[in-house]
């Protein structure tokens, strides 16, 4: 993706690829946050002392110098070799991310009671140090929530494929200086789902530390639109097989032939790219990134 000529911005979209961080909550629906009646008959979750010491060292450095925050956080944008997706592990990883986020954002500890077995499984052998401390260490909580999100990104379910995913090709863009673009090798009818924009998943805090923001999309999953607690972020940078990341913005409304479709349901971590008119063989796909993207006055390279 790359900026084109200084013509007028393309049409405004309900979804934009930007770094708007005007909210600080993620969706915690369906997560069990009970009381603090720990079940002493069950083994305590444990975590390796080496990992704890590393995290505490980083947290102590950050307390002394808040400017080190971005250096201390995991980078979060290295491509992972995706192994076979484990649905049960993914369920536990997702719950752990939600629990740690709510713990950090609202100060509510997850219950590890006998009635909260899903929570116990999610945190087992990972967060013993957090539960053992009566006083929450916010820096370690933040780091742990980010680490949990990164772990989840190594076990993502297969990405969805659009109707024309296997009939698209990456080639030099027709926009001068824009790098590569995405082209169709077959006719595409209006209304077809051409492909999907997806990638690594991030909550509010984990996306803040990402340095390369070229391919970050905010999914406005809340309904109505002003309910932003369900919002999430996807980063297509590490996922080279997501073809939608090569679609450029021509910054001319009449040239946009596809659009990002607004997602109205929570827990949908992809964005359909929908044809806005009949598209001929060989045409380059163009989409609006949204006005907020261009208001950052950044040149985006793809």
From TrEMBL:
Pfam family, one: SET
Database matches in SMART domains: SET
Coiled coil regions, renumbered to chain: none
InterPro entries in the record: KMT5A (IPR051760), SET_dom (IPR001214), SET_dom_sf (IPR046341)
Domain of life of the native organism: Eukaryota
Segments forming domain SET: 166-290
PANTHER family (alphabetical): N-LYSINE METHYLTRANSFERASE KMT5A
Name by which UniProt lists this protein: SET domain-containing protein
């Amino acid at each position: 993706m790359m900026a084109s000529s200084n013509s007028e911005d393309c049409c405004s979209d309900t979804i934009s690829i930007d770094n708007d961080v005007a909210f600080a909550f993620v969706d915690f629906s369906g997560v069990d946050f009970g009381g603090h009646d720990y079940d002493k008959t069950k083994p305590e979750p444990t975590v390796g002392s080496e990992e704890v010491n590393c995290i505490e060292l980083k947290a102590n450095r950050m307390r002394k110098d808040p400017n080190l925050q971005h250096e201390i956080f995991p980078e979060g944008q290295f491509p992972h070799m995706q192994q076979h997706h484990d649905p049960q592990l993914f369920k536990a990883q997702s719950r752990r991310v939600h629990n740690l986020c709510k713990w950090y954002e609202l100060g509510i500890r997850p219950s590890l009671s006998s009635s909260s077995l899903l929570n116990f499984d999610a945190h087992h052998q990972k967060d013993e140090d957090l539960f053992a401390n009566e006083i929450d260490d916010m820096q370690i909580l933040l780091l742990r929530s980010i680490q949990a999100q990164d772990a989840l990104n190594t076990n993502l379910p297969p990405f969805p494929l659009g109707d024309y995913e296997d009939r698209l090709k990456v080639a030099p863009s027709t926009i001068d200086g824009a790098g590569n673009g995405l082209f169709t090798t077959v006719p595409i009818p209006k209304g077809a789902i051409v492909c999907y924009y997806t990638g690594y998943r991030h909550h509010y805090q984990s996306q803040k530390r990402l340095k390369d923001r070229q391919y970050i999309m905010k999914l406005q999953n809340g309904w109505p639109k002003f309910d932003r607690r369900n919002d999430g972020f996807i980063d297509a940078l590490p996922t080279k097989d997501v073809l939608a990341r090569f679609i450029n913005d021509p910054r001319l409304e009449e040239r946009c032939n596809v659009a990002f479709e607004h997602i109205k349901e929570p827990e949908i971590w992809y964005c359909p790219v929908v044809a806005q008119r009949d598209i001929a063989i060989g045409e380059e796909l163009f989409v609006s990134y949204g006005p907020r993207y261009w208001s950052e006055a950044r040149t985006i390279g793809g």
